[in-house]
Amino acid sequence: MKRTFVMAGALALAALTMPAKADKLDDIIASGTLRCAVVLDFPPMGFRDENNQPVGFDVDYCRDLAKALGVEAEIVETTFPERIPALMSGRVDVAVASTSDTLERAKTVGFTIPYYAFENAVVANEKSGIESWEDMKGKTIGATAGTYEAIWIEGRLKEWGAGEFRPYQNQADVFLALSQGQIDATVSTVEVAEANVKSGKFPGIRIVDKAPMVPDYVGLITLREEYGLINYMNLFINQQVRTGRYQELYRKWVGDGEPADLTVKGVYR
Amino acid sequence: MFDTALTVNDLLFLARGAGMTLLVTAIAVGLGTLMGIVFGVVRYQVGPWWGAPLTFFLDIFRSIPLLIQLVLANAFVTTVLGFRVSGFTVACGVLSLYTAAYCAEIVRGGIEAVPQTVRRAARSLGMSWGQDMTHIVLPLATRVALPSWIGLALGVMKDTSLVFVVQVVELLKSTQILITRLQEPLFLLLICGLFYFLISFPIARFGGYLEKKWLAND
């Protein structure tokens, strides 16, 4: 009799100390809120409008995910270095924050398939006659010194053995030089290119082609062990592309071109 | 001519931030003072030996930086205990305990400042402990404690600028949001400082006024 009593006590204690373990997907649905970490000083992915409300591609993407889950979206502003700590300390459920899917990060957090990719565009002066990226051969090309795209184009020009490379201190100088015809073309991320063309500050330039560089793929992230949620989000990203919402958001926030292809040829995932 | 992109809308946004700062301060100072009075009286009454656990508990809140307290408390409540509470609740809870820890010391100091002879006189007139506390100790101790308490309230108001770590958009966070958008850091910080001054100055003056008024009655 006494032993059963002790056993019952031990069982009750075990039940008390053991946390009720539902996975994060269940938790989010049960709580009715999806908390997304979004970086809000990174237009057009995340920024604030004139009413200081968060807007941008990532903000809409989080809202779409919340809608799919049937819950409310809560945008939690984080900086780039704070994204993963916010996730680990439980302040947010997922980060929709343009996170590049590096293997180093994947040791800490769980990545979904890419939901966006940062590509590079060739922007040319209209008078230069450049129609595709190969036309840059033999032309004067400028870029911001030391950037990934500058190193890439300098390498191409060397390879072709024709053309001149001009480094500049910052992006604004590059576009000014391009607009004034001092250089024939430049290579920059599509988002920057679109924003500069749209701004109207640099007349006579246009986006002619995408540069064939490996895009910077970014994924949604959550805790490494939350397979249920990662699985759900993978399907969600697939549906976003399938339903055309991905293109719609791209047109809304980035520009009129085609959004990046999120698959890599010759390999799964 | 001085040029700024700041709009009336943005000023209202800052004012809402200031409102949040005031709200968090009011809750923290209100609850903190109530708890501080209870803790302070208990500590005085039970003596250093029996009061040791309480002293230790309060010392935790006094010695760990508030920023760390906020982050850890938030993680503990939401992740370990699994409660979905708002950052606002966590901020108010932590700041109240933080205020209480300081207030308890102020209260204890105030009580100790009342001369033992006065209290013995009160008891020998037949007053109960409660009557002694409310009619003798309370008015005398309040006069001693008021300046420190005003200082504490103003300190807590400025400490609320840390609650942004638990997603509460108060005055300083609102300013940072505008700085990110408008890229006018010095001008915006100037305005933010002005807002802080506008809400702290009346409290400081009110304290001065009370002190003067009570002095006249002595």
Quick summary:
The complex is a heterodimer of chains A (269) and B (218). Chain A is of the alpha/beta class.
Structural description of this entry:
Chain A: InterPro entries: Solute-binding_3/MltF_N. Chain A: Residues 1-22 form the signal peptide. Chain A: Keywords: Signal. Chain A: This is Polar amino acid transport system substrate-binding protein. The complex is a heterodimer of chains A (269) and B (218). Chain A is an alpha/beta fold and 269 residues long. Chain A has helices spanning 2-17, 24-31, 57-69, 83-88, 103-106, 148-160, 171-179, 190-199, 227-242, 245-253, and strands spanning 33-39, 47-48, 54-55, 72-78, 94-100, 109-125, 140-144, 164-168, 185-189, 205-223. Chain A has an eight-stranded mixed sheet, with helices on both faces. The N and C termini of chain A lie far apart (59 Å). Chain B has one domain (8-169, 183-217): MetI-like fold (Orthogonal Bundle), CATH 1.10.3720.10. Helices cover 83% and strands 0% of the residues of chain B. Chain B starts with 7 loop residues before the first helix and ends with a helix. The A-B interface holds A 19-20, 27, 31, 33, 40-41, 47-48, 50-52, 76-77, 89-91 and B 7, 9-10, 13, 71, 74-75, 78-79, 82, 84, 166-167, 174, 177-178, 180-181.
List the helices and strands and how they pair.
The complex is a heterodimer of chains A (269) and B (218).
Chain A lengths: L1 H16 L6 H8 L1 E7 L7 E2 L5 E2 L1 H13 L2 E7 L4 H6 L5 E7 L2 H4 L2 E17 L14 E5 L3 H13 L3 E5 L2 H9 L5 E5 H10 L5 E19 L3 H16 L2 H9 L16
Parallel strand pairs in A: 1-4, 1-5, 7-8, 7-9
Antiparallel strand pairs in A: 2-3, 5-10, 6-9, 6-10
Chain B lengths: L7 H43 L1 H12 L2 H15 L6 H27 L2 H9 L4 H31 L11 H12 L2 H33 L1
